[in-house]
Amino acid sequence: MLKQLNPREKLVIAMGLVTLALTGVVYGGVLPLMESLERSALQVATLEKEISEMQVYRDEYTQLQAQNLRMAAILKKRPADFSLFSYLDQLAGNTGIKTKIIYMKPSTVKDAEKKNSRSRVEIKLDDVTLEQIGRFVYRIETSPHLISVPRLSIKQKQQESGFLETVLQVETLEK
Crossing angle, helix 130-141 and helix 84-95, to 10 degrees? Predict the structure, then answer.
């Protein structure tokens, strides 16, 4: 049957067969290989990103672990009979604002998630200056006993007086 075809028809059939073979090679081999390479490159990029995130998390975890060890060491050095209430009362006396205290309300907050307790004291001060509050808060925050002021509310009493009304929430970890 091919013998009956003229050379031009034979050429067209040969070109068609070559085109069909090339199409088969491209769609059956080259394109799937390129898609596979693309997927592999995406997977590599994703894994590299995950690795860098894991390194950040590892560094963060290491810092938190070191911080926990420092906090545990500080808590261990703290006297066994340490009381946040009495410490703040003494500190108020040392900074000269003890007479400005309206009330001091102690409480204990148990954190079920972290499995620890916090000793908390709410202090209301009246007729204090910003300098007195600043000095008192500074002494609290720089205390060697892991004490912090998570909440502070300041209200001006009268426009011209310069005196303030303040409510502080002070807390520390319990042993």
Answer: 140
